Amino acid sequence: MGKSIALINDAFHSLSDLLATSVALLGFRVSLRPRDVSHHYGHYKAEPLVGLFVALTLVAIGVITGYRAILSIIKGPVAPRSIAAVAALISILGMHEMRVRQLGRGVSVDLHIKVDSKSSVIEGDEIANAVRERLEDLEEVDSALVHICPHNK
Asked: pTM (2 decimals)?
């Protein structure tokens, strides 16, 4: 939605980290299984096979990311939408949960943010309202609902 190549690539990077970690953990657990009737020497080969899968997946994501970057250079610059800046900011902050739904031509955002647990209810409400107003100022956002959650520093 934000048309930001950098944000899309960062999302692919995060997705590849999640995939690689999950598959590596699974492969490690399988490799620790003892030998059985069909695996006379055990399951130790699972670990290098998973390593190969992870490596090939990362190479594929790198190729796709590079291809998209080259296409964007050839086509010329595309200004990212303001929602991309908000997404980048949210990924950096005090965020607990976020849901974004497409509603017609715009989106609805449901966001949980963490605020200092020592903040007063009024301060928390002011922060939530400021975030909501900033989100709703964006052209792409039709409505925003911001929940606050206590956070210990």
From this structure: 0.47
